[in-house]
Amino acid sequence: MARYTCLLTVAVPLNQLRKQLIEIFKSCRFDIVYETADYMMARETPGQVVFAKLVTAEVLIDQTTATETAVRMSLVVKNEELPLQTDNHCRQMFDLVHHTMAEYDRWQLLGRVIG
């Protein structure tokens, strides 16, 4: 199973974060599958790749350390394919989502750690 992670800290009010995450996922061709106050799961829209390569993205929002101006969140992008090549479909989708989040114009990226 391919799996890529990162930790992001962004300057955005907590009450606006979920709406903006939905916009980001939709722009990356993901559908929201499940969401709660501190968790969101999105799945790549079928049709571009075979079913086993479809990517799932999960965001865990750290509400315990959130302030009025900054929120920390963990991003996990994964699928069922074996990562036999460094430039596999899961890695490409991780790069797309991660780059979209980092360059999103409605918040400022304060920090990131890629795992």
Question: What would you say this structure looks like, in words?
Answer:
- This protein is α+β, with helices and mostly antiparallel strands and 115 residues long.
- It has one domain: TATA-Binding Protein (2-Layer Sandwich), CATH 3.30.310.200.
- Helices cover 24% and strands 39% of the residues.
- It contains two helices and six strands, in the order E-H-E-E-E-E-H-E.
- The protein is globular and about 40 Å long.
- The mean pLDDT is 93.
Give me the secondary-structure topology.
Layout (H helix, E strand, L loop, with lengths): L1 E10 L2 H14 L2 E6 L3 E6 L11 E7 L8 E9 L9 H14 L5 E7 L1
Antiparallel strand pairs: 1-5, 1-6, 2-3, 3-4, 4-5
CATH class: Alpha Beta
State the share of residues found in helices, binned by percent: 10-25%
Looking across the biggest beta sheet, what order are the strands in?
Answer: 2-3-4-5-1-6
Instruction: Please state roughly what percent of the residues sit in beta strands, choosing from under 5%, 5-15%, 15-25%, 25-35%, 35-45% or over 45%.
Output: 35-45%
What is the CATH T-level topology? TATA-Binding Protein
Distance between the termini: 16 Å
Describe the main β-sheet briefly. 6 strands, antiparallel
Kindly state the number of beta strands: 6
Instruction: Give the low-confidence spans.
Output: none
Q: C-alpha Rg, in Å? A: 14 Å
Q: Secondary-structure element sequence?
A: EHEEEEHE
Chain-averaged pLDDT: 93
Structural class by sheet pairing and helices: alpha+beta
The coarse overall form would be globular
Number of helices: 2
Number of domains: 1
Q: In CATH terms, what is the architecture?
A: 2-Layer Sandwich
